[in-house]
Amino acid sequence: MTENITESFIDQARKLNDQRLTAVQDIAAAVQARVDAEQALKDAQAAERKAFKDAERKGWTKAELDKLRPAKRRRTTTKDTAGTNANTAAADHSPDHRQSTD
């Protein structure tokens, strides 16, 4: 009878440990995907710099290439955007912000 309780106890512990291990494996996979993406970004940025340098060597001017270069995007959080919109709306309706009727 004692063996049955011991085996049951160990079996339950194994099941819990398997669930925990699965969770950690998911984390490890997500971290690996992020690390791979960061490396891919670095590789792409290096290739982009090389391509622009090669274009300059082939006669393009820096000014011409700057016009072709895509603009860098700035990330804004939803919280920042909502706060900015609320401040703009409040400023438009404030007593100090009167529009002329001329």
Topology:
Layout: H1 2-57, H2 62-68, H3 78-92
Question: Can you describe this structure in just a few lines?
Answer:
With 102 residues, the chain is mainly alpha-helical. It contains 3 helices and no strands. It has a domain at 2-68.
Provide an overview of this structure.
With 102 residues, the chain is mainly alpha-helical. It is rod-shaped, with a radius of gyration of 30 Å. It has a domain at 2-68. It is built from three helices and no strands. The mean pLDDT is 82. The chain starts with a helix and ends in a 10-residue tail after the last helix. Residues 52-69, 93-102 have a biased composition (Basic and acidic residues).
* Rg, Å, rounded: 30 Å
| N-end to C-end Cα span | 98 Å
Low-confidence stretches: none
- Most strands sheet: none
Number of alpha- plus pi-helical segments: 3
Features:
single chain; 102 residues; mainly alpha
